[in-house]
Amino acid sequence: MDATRTHSTVTIDLGDRSYDIRIGHRLLDDPASLEGLPTSTSALIVSNVTVAPLYAARLKTALLTRYQHVHLVELPDGEVHKDWASLNLIFDVLLQQACDRKTVLFALGGGVVGDMAGFAAACYMRGVPFVQIPTTLLAQVDSSVGGKTAINHPLGKNMIGAFYQPLRVLCDIDTLATLPQRELSAGLAEVIKYGPIADMGFFNWVEANMPALLDRSPQAMAHAIQRSCEIKAHVVGHDERESGLRAILNFGHTFGHAIEAGLGYGQWLHGEAVGCGMVMAARLSYALGCVDAHFVQRLTELVQAAGLPVVAPVLDEQDNVGRYLQLMQVDKKAEAGAIRFVVINAPGSADMRSVPDDMVGEVLRASCSSDEKRV
């Protein structure tokens, strides 16, 4: 895909709630990107203090071709602000501007912005339409797609939220040019994830093209985003509300969410915690006899090549295993207090399993170091 207004499209098939993911260049301020969206007198751009100065004016110009009033709310930046206080900032503007239930919300930013804007859209007047415009790689390949919206609670990540699908997802590859390298690496964790759980051919491609991805090659980035979205679209289309198949998308997340909550939200980026969590989950899969040591090594080396941590932090010097287990019990995949993990049955295939605590403890002891560094 070259730098023109052409784009590729991946469709999320959910019957009358189906929608397109458009992937391409210069989609952000192209009025054609808005064709087919509902009309209304007002729209609200939900962004943050980092992204809004870069892109909000361009988006607003495009929106003014379709909406009479375009409002903007700039949220504080970072996972630590994914909470009730920031969510209420969105409701404050909607109410102050007398926005009605036809008002369209546009989530302009990364995963935190998308999750909060989507949750606000699900709640305001019991549901208003919204559009995802993700500006980070992680959001473009994962969090903007599939309708999972949420805020964090001090006791658990993404535990308060709703399934609420957007009307459209616009992945403008050009916005990745302003993405800090650390954020780019964090997004690559979610790209890597799709190979072990669904497509080892894609895993092989990511291995071969990691240098190009780190250099933000437009062609490599476009393919990585499109294939990631295709895999997620297939999974979400078969299991929208995570009652079965969709849980495989959480490969590495049970360990990763524990790291985020245990260190304090924002100390590690979500993708950094997921990258390390995938290495831990691969070791757990090996302990279960599902994969060989070579697979674990390949995945570990690929995560490391992406600039992500592969050594997990110690969360409690006195009882590190106990602290991890405690945090992992506060997880959406846990059932009746039993922790369930996404494990690799065989490279390219994943499943959910309950695993004995002693086996998890062995993986934790092998994976954690009090001397860990982020990279």
Mean pLDDT: 93
Q: Can you tell me the CATH class of the largest domain?
A: Mainly Alpha
Question: From the coordinates shown, what is the CATH architecture of the largest domain?
Answer: Up-down Bundle
Category by helix and strand content: alpha/beta
Biggest sheet architecture: 4 strands, parallel
- Cα distance, first to last residue? 32 Å
How big is the Rg? 20 Å
Taken from the alpha-carbon principal axes, the silhouette is globular
The name CATH uses for the topology of the largest domain is Dehydroquinate synthase-like, alpha domain
> In percent terms, what proportion of residues is strand?
15-25%
Work out the oligomeric state of the chains in this entry: single chain
Helix fraction, binned, reads: 40-55%
Low-pLDDT runs: 1-5
Strands ordered across the widest β-sheet? 4-3-5-6
Number of domains: 2
Number of helices: 12
Count all strands and give the number: 13
* H-E string: EEEHEHEHEHEEEHHHHHHEHEEHE
Q: CATH superfamily assignment of the largest domain?
A: Dehydroquinate synthase-like - alpha domain
Question: Could you describe the 3D structure shown?
Answer:
Strand 5 (104-109), helix 3 (111-123) and strand 6 (130-134) form a beta-alpha-beta unit. Residues 1-5 have low confidence and may be disordered. A four-stranded parallel beta sheet has the order 4-3-5-6, with helices on both faces. Helix 4 runs parallel beside helix 7, helix 5 (181-198) packs parallel to helix 9 and helix 9 (270-287) packs antiparallel against helix 10 (293-305). It starts with 6 loop residues before the first strand and ends in a 6-residue tail after the last strand. The chain is α/β, with parallel strands linked by helices. The chain has twelve helices and 13 strands. The chain folds into two domains: 7-178, Rossmann fold; 187-369, Dehydroquinate synthase-like - alpha domain (Dehydroquinate synthase-like, alpha domain, Up-down Bundle), CATH 1.20.1090.10.
